[in-house]
Amino acid sequence: xxxxxxxxxxxxxxxxxxxxVPRSSSVASRYDVDLATDDGTGTTLPLVVANMTAxxxxxxxxxxxxxxxxxxxxxxxxxxxxxxxxxxxKERHRVFDTPIELRPDQTVAEAxxxxxxxAHKAAVVVxxxxxxxxxxERDCAEVDRFAQVSAVMxxxxxxxxxxxxxxxVYDAIERAKAPLAVAVSxxxxxxxxxxRLGALRATLYTPAVDPSGGLRIAAAVGVNGEVADRAxxxxxxxxxxxxxxxAHGHQDxxxxxxxxxxxxxxxxxxxxxNVVSAEGTRALIEAGADIVKVGVGPGAMCTTRMMTGVxxxxxxxxxxxxxxxxxxxKHVWADGGVRHPRDVALALAAGASSVMIxxxxxxxxxxxxxxxxxxxxxxxxxxxxxxxxxxxxxRTSGESSYDRARKGLYEEGxxxxxxxxxxxxxxxxxLIDQICSxxxxxxxxxxxxDLAQFHERALVGVQSAAGFHEGRPLEKSW
Length: 478
Ligand SMILES: NC(=O)C1=CN([C@@H]2O[C@H](COP(=O)(O)OP(=O)(O)OC[C@H]3O[C@@H](n4cnc5c(N)ncnc54)[C@H](OP(=O)(O)O)[C@@H]3O)[C@@H](O)[C@H]2O)C=CC1
Ligand SMILES: Nc1nc2c(ncn2[C@@H]2O[C@H](COP(=O)(O)O)[C@@H](O)[C@H]2O)c(=O)[nH]1
Ligand SMILES: [K+]
What we know:
By secondary structure, this protein is of the alpha/beta class. The protein has helices at 58-67, 79-91, 108-114, 137-140, 149-152, 166-176, 196-204, 227-237, 252-262, 278-286, 304-308, 314-327, 341-349, 359-362, 389-395, 401-408, 428-446, 451-457, 465-470, and strands at residues 2-3, 18-20, 47-49, 70-73, 100-102, 122-127, 130-136, 158-161, 180-184, 190-195, 218-221, 241-245, 270-275, 291-294, 331-335, 354-357, 372-373, 379-383, 417-420, 459-462. The protein is built from 19 helices and 20 strands. Residues 51, 222-224, 245-248, 253, 274, 295-297, 299, 302, 304, 336, 386-387, 410, 412 line the site of NADPH dihydro-nicotinamide-adenine-dinucleotide phosphate (NDP).
C-alpha cells in the first residue's frame, strides 16, 4: 500500500479519513478476484466473526463458514458447550442450509417463534426423519396459534437429492416458483434446504473446510486462569484456530499465556491480541502468535477510548502492525470499527489478512439473540460488549460477591445496544454478499486479482470530512 504522492500523513487515520484511487487494471471481471486468505486459517473470504456472546454462536459459525469465513466462539462459553457447538458445526452440510425442523403436531405458535431464526423464513415439517411439508410465516398468518402445523404446511415441495448441482437446484426452484428446495438423502431423509439465492451463493462461494471436510470454526481463550488447559480442551474438541484475547494484549500475562498455548501445538493457527503498535505486534509474534489482532477502542460496543483516552485510529494501527507482522512472515486481523464494506476493503489495503466484524453482524437472523420489535415494529437484536457490566457479570458468576463487585468497577463496554436488522439485508449472508461485492470491486479498481496484490497496489489518499460526506448516497434531494 502506498499513500498518494508518497506523502506520510501527519497524524493517525481511521477508515473514514481515507480513500483509494483507481489504478490501471487488466482484471476483466470482479469474478476473477480470489478473496482467499494466506494466514493459515484456511478461509476463502477475509472475514472473521468476533468472539462476542451476542454475535458468535453455532448458527453464525455454520452460516459464515459455508461462505468461506470463520467464527470465533467466545472465551466465556463453557467447554462442554463449545465441544457440542464444534461437533454440530462440523456435521453441517457444505451446500445445504440447516432448516428449523418441526413435527406435524407442533403448533403454529411454535412455528412462528422459531421461523425468525432463519433468514429463509420457513421450517421443514418432518415425520420419521423424512420431510412431509414446508411451513412459512405467510402460511401461519391469520391462523389460530394453537393449530397444528400439519394443517397449514405446504406439501407441494420441491425435493432434490443431496448430490444435485446447485445450478440445477436453482432452476428447479425457479421453475416451480417455490420459496426453497428440500434436499433428501438416498433413503429419503432430510439433508437440508436451499433457497434460490442459497443455490446461487453455493456456486459463487467456497466453504472454509478442514482436511476432513468439516466446516471450520475458531474459539477464544482469555489470559487468566488455566489458559493452557482450556486451549488443550478446545483443540481436543476440534477447533481449527485458537484466539488468545484480552483488552491490553501487550502485557506479560498475554506473553505467558501465548507461550503456554503455543507449546500445545506447533501447527494450529494462533491469533492473539489486542495491540495497536509495531512493538506490541512483534512481542506477540515472538511469543508464538501467527496472527496478531489489531484494534483498541474502534469497536461499536467499546467505551475504552472514552474511559481511558487509550487506543489508536484503526486504519493507521492496522497499517503499522501489518507491516511489522509482514517483516516476520506473519499476519494481522483488523478487529473492530467496521460499519461498511469500504472499511473491509480499506483494512485489507492496509495489510490485514482478515477483518473481524462484531456488532454489524449482531443485527442479523444468525446472531444468537432473540428477534425483538421496537415500538414502530422494526426488528432488532440486543448486542453488548465483552467488557460491559453485563458480560463481566456473566463471566464472573462463579466468583464471590466481593470479587464480582471489584471486577464490576472496570466497565469498558455497552451493556445493551439495539442492532436493527436491515430490511433489505436481514441475514448475515446478505451482508457477506454486500461486503464481497465491495471488496471484489475494490480489487479490480486497484488492478488486483488477489489480496496480496491488492495490498501491494492499493493507492490511498487522505480526505476531509467533506470528502467522506461527498461519497455518501443521498436519500432525498438537497
Ligand atoms: N479491542 C478492544 O478495544 C477491547 C476489547 N475488549 C474485549 O473484552 C473482552 C474482555 O477482555 P478483558 O477486559 O481484557 O478481560 P479478561 O478477562 O481477559 O482480563 C484481563 C486481565 O488483564 C488485566 N489487565 C491489566 N490491565 C488491563 C486493562 N487496561 N484492561 C483490562 N484488563 C487489564 C486484568 O486485571 P485486573 O482486572 O485486575 O486489572 C485481567 O487480569 C475481550 O474479549 C476483549 O477483547 C475489552 C476492552 C477493549
Ligand atoms: N473496549 C471494548 N471492546 C470490545 C468490547 N466488546 C468487544 N470489543 C471489541 O470490539 C470488536 C468488534 O468490533 P465491532 O465494531 O465490529 O463491534 C471485538 O472483536 C473486540 O475487540 C467491549 O465491551 N469493550
Ligand atoms: K468505540
